[in-house]
Task: inverse folding
């Protein structure tokens, strides 16, 4: 159930100012509350949105984490595509990429 | 809840939100969603106040994914046709696997619209549909049911 734990961390980071401020000061202390695999922990530490996407994090949760990291919207979209190229198809959940990474939004195509 | 922004900009009306999980499993079976709509109708009919019921949700879309902006207009129009014809059997025959394939994870949000159809219990009319509003990354529709 570590994907659940991973998403729980991201959800609470998204929602709770206290979690955010403590995470900025003492990330290990916050992350110690969650049972995460090394791969999950590494993805968080590096802000590797592409890997988090491939691991199955719900994109409605992930997009807020990406925003918090200061990643602009269409960069976030592209980082998910890069994640699939680098790590393979999405492994869990219901947010898998449907094709080969086509760009559907006009602003995305202009990137 | 974009419609509320326009319908009640000054926040004058008492609002009772009813949320249906459309984000991820376990998703409510559609017949339960229909039953929820019927229960809401019974509750509405049981009180003297004049009550408006809004059903808001997406049709086909792939929100916050690499496919953001993808829209299946054919699927959307078929769904809206079933919805406003009040075709209960056709509405309840959607299966999540096919919805995910054809309409994306955003397509799971038909639950809120099906619940609204059950509240109405009569056919309705599609007043507007467009798949050409890119900023929303979803086909946008507006309609109303007879009561």
Result:
């Amino acid at each position: 159930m570590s994907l659940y734990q991973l998403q729980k961390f991201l959800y609470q980071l998204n929602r709770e100012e206290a979690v955010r401020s403590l995470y900025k000061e003492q990330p290990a202390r916050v992350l110690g509350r969650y049972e995460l695999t090394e791969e999950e922990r590494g993805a968080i530490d590096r802000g590797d949105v592409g890997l988090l996407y491939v691991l199955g994090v719900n994109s409605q949760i992930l997009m807020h984490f990406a925003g918090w990291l200061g990643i602009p919207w269409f960069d976030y979209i592209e980082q998910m595509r890069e994640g699939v190229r680098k790590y393979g198809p999405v492994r869990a959940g219901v947010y898998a990429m449907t094709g080969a990474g086509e760009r559907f939004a006009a602003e995305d195509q202009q990137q | 809840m974009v419609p509320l922004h326009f319908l009640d900009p000054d926040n004058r009306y008492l609002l009772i939100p009813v949320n249906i999980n459309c984000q991820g499993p376990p998703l409510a079976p559609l017949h339960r969603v229909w039953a929820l709509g019927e229960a809401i109708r019974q509750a509405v009919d049981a009180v003297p106040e004049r009550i408006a019921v809004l059903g808001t949700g997406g049709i086909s879309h792939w929100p916050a994914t690499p496919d953001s902006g993808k829209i299946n207009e054919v699927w959307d129009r078929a769904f809206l046709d079933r919805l406003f014809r009040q075709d209960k059997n056709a509405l309840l025959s959607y299966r999540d696997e096919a919805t995910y394939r054809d309409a994306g994870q955003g397509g799971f949000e038909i639950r809120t619209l099906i619940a609204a159809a059950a509240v109405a219990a009569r056919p309705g009319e599609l007043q507007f549909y467009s798949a050409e509003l890119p900023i929303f990354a979803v086909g946008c529709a507006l309609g109303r049911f007879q009561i």
Summary: The CA atoms of residues 43 and 52 of chain A lie 6 Å apart. Chain A has one domain: 2-92. Chain A has a mean pLDDT of 94. The radius of gyration of chain A is 14 Å.
